[in-house]
Structures are given as structure tokens and as C-alpha cells.
Specification:
The chain folds into two domains: 177 residues, Gyrase A, domain 2, CATH 3.30.1360.120; 59 residues, Beta Barrel (Elongation Factor Tu (Ef-tu), domain 3). Helix content is 15%, strand content 34%.
Length: 247
């Protein structure tokens, strides 16, 4: 199915792989065997954008949220300096599904339940997959909701989602990310909650009168939330709705 809110960029030129390797959270070498999920961080280790990378001949296709595409082009161009890399938008469409994968598709590397992704010249109508429900069920963060400029990717489960490689060497924001991995215990992060009531995305979650987090993507009586773990115990409240942590 086509997903209209994605922009596919093409990176070409002999320095493309080395250029990306020094910037992104994952190992670009993974494109030789499938899709690579990765992020671009600030030097302070905070989230800027997440995307998928696919090899197409000597080029790399970059599948990003359309709302972040212009910023990504600008930021990558800033880092390019003298590297022989050309970044151009394409007219390709993202297709994805959870049925049997077609020949031109590759598995979504974040979780097997998310099926496949393919890039084609023509658009298709949507299939019947309830993507929001899948994202909530498997704790998959989305840009603009769970993933914001204040986000640290390890709090959003990027290691579990195969979005960061701790052996690849330096990249922008690597020092902060590695320190969070090896020297600290995460006290806040993404969780799945059960919810009864009418609270919506962005509602503050409280526990015993103290702020415990924020309600994020919701699908039926389940939702994702960003929680402070030491406070997110027992029954919580979000705009009068009952909230209980599951994962």
C-alpha cells in the first residue's frame, strides 16, 4: 500500500556510504542484506529524524517522514562538506503490508509483525492493516508523536527496534547514546498502557497527584505512553481516564 506521508530521497556518489556511516546510529553495511532502520541525532544525542535505508545499485534510498524531508536534506547537505554525495528527492511511493511479501519488498527491520516495505513508481490504495494498533501492540514509536526533539532514542526502544549499533564507531550523538547504554539505568521511557476513558494524545498522566508521564498514540483501549518509571505504578489518571501500565 502507498503511504502518502513519506518522502523517498536518493543519495548517490562514491562517498555515500562513508558519509552516512559517520552520521547515523546504525551500520550502513546492513543495506547489503536488507533494510536498515536508523536515526540522525543532534551532537547532544537527541532525536532529529528516523528513517529506513535501502541499497539500489550504488545508490541509497532514504525513506523518511515527509514532514522531516526538507530538514534532512538541509542537515545532510550541511554535513556533506567536500564529500562526493548528491541528495535528490524522488517520485517513488512507499508500499507496505503485512501479507505475503512481494518480490520487490524487504522486511521491516523493527519487528516481524510490521511486515514489509517496497518502493515503487506508482501509488496503490491502502490495505486493511490497522497500523496504529500494530504500533501500540509492539511499542513502535512514531515521529512527531513519540519521537520529538526532546527524545533520547534509547528511551524509545531503538535498541529493541534494531535502530542503533553500539559496535560501529563514531556518529553524531554517539557519545551520549553510548553513555546512556553503558553507564546509566533508564528512568523514563516508552511503555504500553491500558486506558479506560476519553483521554487523548498529549494528556498528562498522573499518579497520586504527581506527574508520571504523557499519553501518546492510542488504539482502542490500549496506548503508548512516555512514563517516569518510579512513579508509573498502580492506577494512574489522564484527564479523568483510568491508565494502567502493561509493559
Amino acid at each position: 500500500m502507498q503511504h502518502a506521508q513519506r518522502q523517498i530521497l536518493r543519495l548517490s556518489g562514491p562517498d555515500t556510504r562513508d558519509f552516512l556511516q559517520g552520521l547515523i546510529t546504525n551500520d550502513i553495511g546492513g543495506v547489503d542484506s536488507g533494510l536498515v532502520y536508523a536515526a540522525l541525532l543532534t551532537p547532544q544525542g537527541k532525536y532529529m529524524a528516523d528513517f529506513f535505508l535501502r541499497a539500489e545499485g550504488d545508490d541509497i534510498l532514504l525513506d523518511a517522514d515527509a514532514a522531516q524531508a526538507d530538514m534532512l536534506v538541509q542537515r545532510l547537505s550541511m554535513y556533506k562538506l567536500r564529500a562526493d554525495v548528491t541528495i535528490t528527492p524522488t517520485l517513488l511511493h512507499l508500499h507496505r503490508g503485512t501479507d505475503d511479501a512481494p518480490a520487490d519488498a524487504l522486511p521491516d527491520p523493527r519487528h516481524p509483525a510490521l511486515g514489509w516495505r517496497a518502493y515503487r513508481d506508482t501509488a496503490q490504495t491502502d490495505d486493511a492493516t490497522d497500523w496504529a494498533a500494530l504500533y501500540v501492540a509492539h511499542m513502535i514509536p512514531s515521529s512527531g508523536t513519540e519521537l520529538t526533539p526532546d527524545t533520547f532514542i534509547l528511551e524509545m526502544g531503538f535498541e529493541r527496534l534494531n535502530g542503533v549499533d553500539f559496535r560501529k564507531g563514531c556518529y553524531v550523538g554517539q557519545e551520549v547514546t553510548a553513555r546512556m547504554k553503558h553507564k546509566t539505568e533508564l528512568r523514563k521511557g516508552l511503555a504500553r498502557v491500558a486506558i479506560t476513558g476519553d483521554a487523548t494524545t498529549g494528556a498528562a498522566i498522573t499518579a497520586q497527584g504527581k506527574v508520571a508521564g504523557t499519553l501518546l498514540t492510542r488504539a482502542g483501549d490500549m496506548a503508548l505512553a512516555y512514563l517516569r518509571y518510579d512513579r508509573a505504578t498502580g492506577e494512574m489518571d489522564a484527564d479523568g481516564a483510568k491508565v494502567t501500565r502493561i509493559d
